[in-house]
Design a protein that fits this description.
Low-confidence stretches: none
Catalytic activity: shikimate + NADP(+) = 3-dehydroshikimate + NADPH + H(+)
Oligomer: single chain
Radius of gyration: 19 Å
CATH topology of the largest domain: Rossmann fold
Bound molecules: 2'-monophosphoadenosine-5'-diphosphate
GO biological process, one term: chorismate biosynthetic process
Function: Involved in the biosynthesis of the chorismate, which leads to the biosynthesis of aromatic amino acids. Catalyzes the reversible NADPH linked reduction of 3-dehydroshikimate (DHSA) to yield shikimate (SA).
CATH superfamily of the largest domain: NAD(P)-binding Rossmann-like Domain
Protein name: Shikimate dehydrogenase (NADP(+))
CATH class of the largest domain: Alpha Beta
Structural class: alpha/beta
Enzyme class: oxidoreductase
Mean pLDDT: 96
Helix content: 25-40%
Number of helices: 12
Shape: globular
Length: 280
């Protein structure tokens, strides 16, 4: 029986066990995917011992993604660029780390909008400058965009992000002050919220989308609620919208494939299962 885990602190709210549990059942695999709560002081020890405890690998969530990056022996190019690891596995006795958040975000856009959507995007506007924003900017850097603007309440963090990722792709990266956000909307064909604004219990993200380009795409990584105030505003304007649940589902695919040997599918049934759990 193959065992995998999600390690975090706290980890009880994670929906990953539901996703992997669905795939295990769907494919009739005798395996498990368990939540493991590990405090930061014990994370190094956890990395060293999970294999002897019978685990093939697992996912890493807050607050361990940077420690996992530092603790693995080998990393994928993606993880290397981001400085954060969310997926672990052992290959020929060597501990590997990958970052699948990027692939999850991009797969969600490609499948929701159809490949080629990026041909219509000259400028992307990314809101926020945390770990999620880093991954998304890195994903967008692999596409033929001309400009990526990163707006953040704390401008210095946007500047750090831009500095850290500069030079990887064709797009010009620019940090933008939060006050200048509304002015950037008319020139942005893709708008991505990576902040926690709009999440259940948080204030909404209020953007003036009146001047947004008619075919603009608005996407949110917040998925609880599924239809955030930002997406509702965008829909009312007739813009194209992509919700955040697909990213969560697609980021799980590479890990499952590594541990259990089958590339799983993001089915409508799986999506419905998580939507029911969110209560949307
Ligand atoms: P993650 O790793 O998931 O991206 P994070 O590192 O905590 O999470 O980042 C949260 C993001 O939401 C940050 O960009 C944060 O802005 P600051 O860097 O200025 O803190 C943003 N954010 C959180 N609350 C916000 C608010 N009320 N208004 C604007 N931005 C907010």
């Amino acid at each position: 029986m193959t065992k995998a885990f999600i390690v975090g602190h706290p980890v009880r709210h994670s929906r990953s066990p539901l996703i992997h549990g669905y795939w295990l059942k769907q494919h009739g695999i005798s395996g498990s995917y368990e939540r493991i709560d590990v405090e930061p002081v014990n994370f190094g020890k956890f990395l060293e011992t999970f294999h002897e405890r019978g685990f093939a690998g697992g996912n890493v969530t807050i607050p361990h993604k940077e420690a996992a990056f530092a603790g693995v022996a080998r990393r994928t190019e993606r993880a290397e660029r981001l400085g954060a690891v969310n997926t672990l596995w052992i290959e020929k006795g060597v501990l590997w780390g990958d970052n699948t958040d990027v692939a999850g975000f991009m797969a969600n856009l490609d499948l929701s909008l159809g490949t080629g959507w990026d041909q219509d995007v000259d400028t992307a506007l990314v809101l926020g400058a945390g770990g999620a924003a880093r991954g998304i900017v890195a994903g967008l850097q692999d596409r033929p965009l001309r400009r990526i603007l990163v707006a953040n309440r704390t401008l210095s963090k946007a500047q750090d992000l831009v500095h850290g990722l500069a030079g990887y792709g064709p797009a010009k990266l620019e940090a933008l002050a939060w006050e200048d956000l509304d002015r950037a909307i008319p020139g942005s064909q893709l708008i991505v919220n990576t902040t926690s604004l709009g999440m259940t219990g948080q204030p909404p993200l209020t953007l003036d989308l009146a001047g947004a380009p008619g075919r603009a795409i608005v996407t949110d990584i917040v998925y609880a609620p599924l239809r955030t105030p930002l997406l509702a505003t965008a829909e009312a304007r007739g813009l194209r919208t992509v919700d955040g649940l697909g990213m969560l589902l697609h980021q799980a695919v590479p890990g499952f494939e590594r541990w259990f040997g089958i590339r799983p599918e993001v089915t409508p049934e799986l999506r419905a299962l998580i939507v029911a759990d969110i209560g949307g």
